[in-house]
Design brief:
The protein is 79% helix and 0% strand. With 89 residues, the chain is mostly helical. The longest helix is centred in the N-terminal third of the chain and has 25 residues. The protein is elongated, with a radius of gyration of 15 Å.
Length: 89
């Protein structure tokens, strides 16, 4: 497992790219935000806050397993958000 700094960067880049994809969808389709796209952006921001809070948790017994679980959770969240972006009309 890479260090905490790299994990934070990964979280930032992945969720930032997802938000950017939502903005690109908005630009290429309606040209303005929709309620669905705004909800996806809010969900990505909430996921970011949740994951960063977990990374910053100090009282963790097994740090390696804790960070590995955060990485898995990031991947699952990203896949779910991407599926929702692909489902936008």
């Amino acid at each position: 497992m890479a260090n905490v700094k790299n994990l934070k960067k990964d979280i930032n880049y992945v969720l930032g790219d997802i938000i950017e994809a939502v903005y690109l969808f908005e630009i290429t389709t309606t040209g303005k935000p929709t309620t669905e796209s705004n909800a996806l952006i809010d969900e990505a921001i909430a996921a970011f806050d949740n994951l960063i809070t977990k990374v910053n948790a100090k009282k963790v017994e097994d740090k390696k397993a804790h960070f590995k679980q955060i990485n898995v959770e990031l991947e699952q969240t990203a896949n779910q958000l991407i599926a929702k972006i692909n489902g936008l009309q």
